[in-house]
Amino acid sequence: MAVGRAEKPLDPASGPVQRFAHELRLLRQKAGSPTYRAMARQASYAAPTLSAAAAGDRLPSPAVTRAYALACGGDPDAWERRLAEAAEETLRFREGAGAGDGGTSAPYPGLGRFEAEHRERFFGRDAVVDDLAELVGRHGLVAVVGASGSGKSSLLRAGLVPALRDGRAGRDGRAGQTGAAPSAIRILTPGEHPSRVDRALFADDAVVLVDQFEEVFTLCRDRAERAEFIDLLTGARARVVIAVRSDFYGRCAEHEALASALRPATFLLGPMTPEQLRQAVVGPAVAERLIVERELTARIVADVADEPGGLPLMSHALLETWRRRRGRTMTVAAYEAIGGVRGAIAHTAEALFTGFDDVRARTARALLLRLVTPGGGTEDTGRPVARSELEDLDELDHAEEVLEKLLRARLLTVDDRMVSLAHEALIGAWPRLRSWIEADRELLRVQRRLTEAAEVWAALGRDAGALYRGSQLESAREAFTANPVLRTVLTSVERAFLEASIAASGRERRKAARTARTLRGLVAALSVLLCLALVAGLAAWQQSRTAERRATEAEARRVAAVAATLRRSDPRTAAAECGRLADRRPAGDPGRAVRRRRPARRGPSRSRFRRAGPRPQRHLAAAQPGRPHAHGGGAGPHQALGRGGGPPAPRPGGSGAASGGHRGGQSRHRHGRAADPGGGAAVGPRRRKAHRCSVRAAGGRRGRLVRRGRADGRRTRTRGTGPGVGRARGPSPARHGPGAGGDPGP
To answer: For residue 119, is it left (φ>0), alpha (ψ between -120 and 50) or beta?
Structure first.
């Protein structure tokens, strides 16, 4: 494609004609910079006519403007409206030029501030300037405290700076006297990184003015950097004057050195009196040879007197009234046409915003919200932004064009490549902007944190350790990735930061999932191994029990065989072998139910099973006269004594056999009968148990056992089993052998 001849440069700030031509050139650049010959083939006008429309010498006709827009792919209706606005603005400028010298120079700054070169237009603060200059001469650090819109910035620049240059603030502190002017006067604002300020600015005999000091608390998030900057101010050898909003003055007490320095050197700037307001309205107009109607002056003073922070609103209303003046006269009709002090800003902003189409309206909203910091318990504040940051909004359509229009309308200002709101009063005075902030307050907080984090990430060389994680990442992802429209309000650095954070989070989640799966596999494997070990242990234990039981059974069979052999020849040895067998059985073995007999004691013993020698056993029982004891007669070891003390006569019909027992008068044994060698009663020789005796009382009376003796010498009690019957237990001949009882005692 052929490249046409280079066009002469244009200055958009020189007037509406060149500004409109500059916008036409931007439209042609976005269309790919086609040549005017190529554009002429699509339009019904020649190439020189189209080129003259963007030359900046005069405004083109509406038909040429529509043809130019169609050739470049623009909206012809929108460009025709722009042409009408430029023509109206050109007419106002021509009227101002015919009013006289200086008529084209606005006497009021609008939402902006008075600068040092505007000292001839700065009225109503003469006494305040003198008092402040005196205070600066007496203290090294002075704070000017006032509400938003009270005129602090204009006071420093258009009031204090000329006074310092005139030497009205010497070291002696006497205002009004001419002294040595400071070697340098420097003005700065803290911004987001206040510690980056050059230390050389705080040289000896210099005066440093720190405007918008509240940015130390609203924009700077690093406490260490904030403390470093405050230490620089309090320890500087130069004189320092800070201007801080009244709602942030309490934050100055957080730093002990700053609070001590400001205690005797705080200058409180209050509202202007009605007389001072009258001077501020009439003075700049008279300086520009203009006439202000008296009724207009009275109306403005009355409206601003009850408006907190109303100086920027008044200045903007006066500026709009001046633009609509009639000749050299500023009229009440023009003031009412713009809506007064409160409605002037909204009128200007709405007039500009309604001229945008939907795409440009979204872009304007994104740009304005980026210039606002939502307050956390305080009022919302402006946020100065580097112009490069706004230019980095590459997904916003027509961002540069909308920004230029906002600057021309003086809703925004540019200073040292920093773009900011013309005044924070715009936040409260424009209802549309206020509604945007309220609707997107939480989103704005998330966006501010994202912007700061992205800047740190970029400053660290895109270090992965500075990426978002956890709840911060989730909130940013939910706010910007779910809505494609909101994604366009991010810069390229912010989008790259968010995308890198999401990618890193995904990698970490996948790694965590792999680790979890590995751990679950290990736990499952260990569980299986543990179950196998338990099964093997139980099997081994069962096998051990089975082997032990079999060994015990084998031993029992062996012992049983031995006991069967020794039962008749050596019963004691057989019983001992059976006891040892019972002790070797497991605790749960039912074979232990057969209890082992108590082993015999060595030496002389009083056991009921073994005796060292024959001892007599006594059984004393109460019996009725004439009735024998229920035990067989003879000289056996057991005897029952009657009342006479002698042995009872045996019952007839028996040959030494017992004729008693349970109620029947007989003595019974569980394992048969055996003859006592001593001629006593029959007992069981196969079991070593105590012989049971029964005594039945004569005459049907219930017998009472008085005493029963045992082989070991202990006493026991028995009870009768029926009328006249008692029981006693003593050594059995089957247990101790014949004659073990000896002779009966008394």
So the answer is: alpha
C-alpha R_g of the chain: 60
136 closest CA partner among 190, 184, 208: 208
Q: Which CATH class for the 12-97 domain?
A: mainly alpha
Whether residue 731 is predicted with pLDDT greater than 70 in this model: the reply is no
Can you tell me whether residue 674 is helix, strand or coil?
strand
| Residue % of the chain over a pLDDT of 90 | 18
Would you give the DSSP letter of residue 355?
A: T
Cβ–Cβ under 8 Å, residues 178 and 132: no
- Which class in CATH covers the domain with range 355-439? mainly alpha
Torsion angle defined by CA atoms of residues 76, 77, 83 and 84, in that order, rounded to the nearest 10 degrees: 160
* Per-residue tokens: 282: 């009439």
CA distances from 166 to 89, 113, 124 (A): 40, 21, 19
Domain 125-271 has CATH 3.40.50.1100: no
For residues 377 and 379, what is the distance between their CA atoms, to the nearest angstrom? 7
Angular region, 745: left φ>0, alpha ψ -120 to 50, beta rest: beta
Q: In whole angstroms, what is the distance from residue 248 CA to residue 226 CA?
A: 14
Distances (CA, A) of 265 to 110, 128, 138, 229: 31, 15, 9, 19
CA distances from 100 to 94, 104, 343 (A): 11, 9, 29
- The whole-angstrom separation of Cα 557 and Cα 537 is 30
Spatial separation of the C-alpha atoms in residues 246 and 145, rounded to whole Å: 5
b/e per residue, 241-257, with b = 16+ CB within 10 A? bbbbbebbbebbeebee
H-helix or E-strand spanning residue 503? helix 492-566
Q: CA 140 to CA 283: how far, in whole Å?
A: 33
Nearest CA to 323 among 94, 112, 154? 94
Q: pLDDT tens digits for 248-299? A: 899 999 999 999 999 999 999 988 999 999 999 999 999 888 999 999 999 9
Quick one: CA dihedral 361, 486, 412, 496, positive or negative? negative
Strand partners, 208: 186, 240
pLDDT in tens, 732-743: 444 444 444 444
Pairing of strands 239-245, 206-210: parallel
Burial tier of 63 (Cβ tally within 10 Å: 0-12, 13-18, 19+):
middle
Q: Where are the domains of the chain?
A: 12-97, 125-271, 275-338, 355-439, 616-644+657-746
pLDDT of residue 2: 42
Angle at the Cα of 157 from the Cα atoms of 156 and 162, rounded to 5 degrees: 100
State residue 77 phi and psi, 5-degree precision: -65, -45
In this predicted structure, the answer to whether residue 52 has a pLDDT above a threshold of 70 is yes
| Separation of alpha carbons 641 and 444, rounded Å | 119
Dihedral sign (CA 570, 576, 579, 583): negative
Domains 125-271 and 355-439 belong to one CATH topology: no
Which of 232, 264, 228, 226 shows the shortest CA–CA distance to 248?
A: 226
Pairing assessment for the beta strands 381-382 and 372-373 based on DSSP bridges: antiparallel
Q: Which stretches of 274-328 are assigned E, i.e. beta strand?
A: 291-292
CA distance 594 to 715: 27
